[in-house]
Structure formats: C-alpha cells, structure tokens
C-alpha cells in the first residue's frame, strides 16, 4: 500500500467525482490514463460505500479504494450516472447496483487531484 492519491473523473457533464487510490498499481494505471498513454481502459469501477467523504463532498457515497479498477466495457447492470446513484442511494446495492458495484460507462479519469486541493476541502 502506498500513500493515498486522489483522482477525479467526469461523466457526461456531471460534476467531478473524486476517488482515492492506495494501490501503487492502480495509481500508476490512473496516471497513464490522465497522461493519455492509456486510451482504452479509461473508465472507473468499483464497489460504492454509502457514506460521504471529505475529499468528495458533492456526493453522498464514495468508491471503496480497495475495489477500484479501470475498464473499457462493462455489463449494463452496474451503469448509472453519479446523480442517479446519489438520488437513488437508498435503492443501491439491491436490484439497483447489485453488490454495490458501480461502473459508470460515461466516466473518464481526467486528472490527479493535488494533495493541497484535497486538504482544502
């Protein structure tokens, strides 16, 4: 495990969604996406936790850092916009987003969030 590094993704015009990575391999993958080196697996997926985090204050949920990966294509049952997930959080982890697994197809990792920006939240 390395020190946490934060990244943001956008999804079809929604406000940024910030997520934390602690795996050196995942951090390296995210940096390749941001740099443009990786052009296929640019979407983010993982299990959600129904809890707001200081580093992602716009949303009432976050990704569990230990479950995050990146994808090119995923099954439809885990696709939803950040706003839809937030608005239907009480239904998540059942028929909606089974197993709390979220894979927003429109997501694209766009930037590494500087530590100072995360600390300022």
Automatic annotation (TrEMBL):
Domain BP74 N-terminal: 4-115
InterPro entries on file: BP74_N, cAMP-inducible_BP74-like
Cited Pfam families: BP74_N (PF23621)
Name assigned to this protein: BP74 N-terminal domain-containing protein
Taxonomic path: Bacteria, Bacillati, Actinomycetota, Actinomycetes, Streptosporangiales
